From TrEMBL:
The keyword Flavoprotein appears for this protein: no
The keyword Glycoprotein is assigned to this record: no
Biological processes, Gene Ontology terms: DNA damage response
Coiled coil: 86-169
Protein name per its UniProtKB record: RING-type E3 ubiquitin transferase
Cell compartment(s), UniProt: Nucleus
The protein's enzyme class: transferase
PROSITE patterns documented for this protein: ZF_RING_1 (PS00518), ZF_RING_2 (PS50089)
PANTHER family: RING-TYPE DOMAIN-CONTAINING PROTEIN
Catalytic activity from the UniProt record: S-ubiquitinyl-[E2 ubiquitin-conjugating enzyme]-L-cysteine + [acceptor protein]-L-lysine = [E2 ubiquitin-conjugating enzyme]-L-cysteine + N(6)-ubiquitinyl-[acceptor protein]-L-lysine
Organism: Riccia sorocarpa
Length: 193
């Protein structure tokens, strides 16, 4: 197996591969054959079969990849087959166009629905922000009222404490006064007796 454009690929003892024609042109009339790449002496060379097979398979793959031009119908049967395929392709094209139009329509409906949802979302976010602000104000007002209630409770407790002290004082004064009245009254009555 040889590639169509190059003679066999040869492998030098140093491990480099060259086409045989290129190597012989490079070496020419030199007494020593030297590798063009690493300058080592080439005493012998062998065909690099694995590289040659790789090149051949690549070339054949390239040949298979190139599209063949369409052949015109040669007889009535080929023509009918071609027309059937063309008709099937046109039918399929019409079906796909209808499916595409339906998909475009569904997409428009979904976009409209998405716009409505986005608008509702914006309104809810605005309402949420307002509600949070009101809640913040109510919370602050509640905290203020709580502080005032605590102050009033403390003030009330203080007043109740003073009232209890005053009640004790009043009771002492009243007791002293009663005692004084009793003592003075008995003294006063005993003087007139």
């Amino acid at each position: 197996m040889k590639s169509p454009d190059f003679p066999p690929i040869v492998l030098s003892p140093c491990g480099h591969s060259f086409c045989a024609k290129c190597l012989s042109m490079h070496v020419g009339n030199q007494r020593k054959k030297l590798c063009p790449y690493c300058r080592q002496n080439i005493a012998s060379s062998a065909v690099n079969l694995s590289l040659q097979r790789l090149i051949d398979s690549f070339v054949s793959l390239q040949d298979r990849r190139q599209p063949t031009p369409p052949q015109p119908p040669q007889d009535e049967q080929d023509k009918a087959h071609f027309l059937n395929k063309l008709s099937a392709a046109e039918t399929r094209s019409e079906i796909l166009q209808k499916e595409l139009a339906a998909a475009v329509e569904r997409r428009k409906l979904l976009e409209s629905e998405l716009c409505n949802i986005d608008e509702f979302y914006r309104r809810l976010k605005h309402r949420q922000a307002e509600t949070r602000e009101r809640l913040r104000k109510v919370t602050a007002d509640n905290e203020s009222v709580d502080k005032e209630v605590k102050l009033l409770e403390n003030e009330r407790a203080e007043i109740q404490k003073h009232m209890a002290e005053e009640n004790v004082r009043s009771a002492l004064v009243d007791s002293s006064l009663t005692e004084l009245k009793t003592v003075h009254f008995s003294t006063f009555t005993s003087q007139f007796d």
